[in-house]
Amino acid sequence: MPRISATIVAHNEGHRIGRAISSLACADEIVLVDDGSTDNTREIAAALGARVVVNQPWPGPAAQKNLAAQLARHDWILSLDADEELDREAQQAVLQWKSSEPRAAGYRFRRRAFFLGRWIRHSGWYPDYKLRLYDRRRGEFQPAPVHDSVRVAGRVETLPGHILHFPVETLEEYRQQLDRYVERIGDHLAQQGKRPGLGLRYLAPAWRWMHVYLVHAGFLDGRAGWIIAREEARYVYRKYRRALELLTQRSAGCAL
């Protein structure tokens, strides 16, 4: 029977780390890697039975998650973010999975994201499959400008149940999150030397709005769906504008 190490990386997550850890009772151990929280994250995690390790400075999300996997006692890793938790169906699915020999190198779950107090069922936010249970001998997290993900060498299957995701609670938090994405993606595009043309800068935001609100039926998510479509269109425009500004500054610097 395979044994599982659950892993979480955290920074100042005391207000929600308890829910994440409590949903991982299906694991045989829980490892939390903290990068220097100044709140009570580590104390809460330790009180709930997690093995807490401090690693500074912050090496990036993928590297920190891979470190957590390396510190684990078992080869099968169940990785959650601090703003996530397994629902009961997913917990039962993991327990049932442990009763037999694994048939795949990795297993994914559907993820339900919540915003403004409701589950966002449309707007392109669901089912949002996430590979989170994997054999560390056959896979690891790969870095990306925004969303790192696990890649494994072998077959991937889907388990029942959901990961519940609570990324932001307010519109202001959502905008701050998108601001960070603008910087990362804009910088990444500039580093690649990709100068966005006029059509891309103005048509891509319009397409993103239509894609979220009409194609993915964001209108069925009510006010939250309208806000998501509007803010994602704004995000697309701003990331291309940032890339263009950085490339223009670079060209001007080279010309001096």
How is this fold's topology laid out?
Blueprint: E1 4-10, H1 17-22, E2 29-34, H2 41-47, E3 51-54, H3 61-71, E4 76-79, E5 84-86, H4 88-97, E6 106-115, E7 118-119, E8 130-135, E9 139-142, E10 149-152, E11 156-165, H5 171-191, H6 198-215, H7 222-255
Parallel strand pairs: 1-2, 1-4, 2-3, 6-11
Antiparallel strand pairs: 4-8, 5-11, 6-7, 6-8, 9-10
Helix pairs in contact: 5-7, 6-7
Short descriptors:
single chain, 256 residues, alpha/beta, Spore Coat Polysaccharide Biosynthesis Protein SpsA, Chain A, 2 domains, 9-stranded mixed beta sheet, two-stranded antiparallel ribbon, 11 strands, 42% helix, globular
Structure description:
Helices cover 42% and strands 23% of the residues. It is of the alpha/beta class and 256 residues long.
Give a quick summary of the entry.
The protein is an alpha/beta fold and 256 residues long. 42% of the residues lie in helices and 23% in strands.
CATH class label of the largest domain: Alpha Beta
H/E series: EHEHEHEEHEEEEEEHHH
CATH topology of the largest domain: Spore Coat Polysaccharide Biosynthesis Protein SpsA, Chain A
The best one-word shape is: globular
Biggest sheet features: 9 strands, mixed
Number of strands: 11
Structural class: alpha/beta
What is the CATH-assigned architecture of the largest domain? Alpha-Beta Complex
**pLDDT under 50 segments (min length 5)?**
none
Beta-strand residue fraction: 15-25%
Percent helix among the residues? 40-55%
Count of discrete structural domains:
2
Helical stretch count? 7
How widely separated are the two ends?
A: 66 Å
Mean pLDDT: 95
CATH superfamily of the largest domain: Spore Coat Polysaccharide Biosynthesis Protein SpsA, Chain A
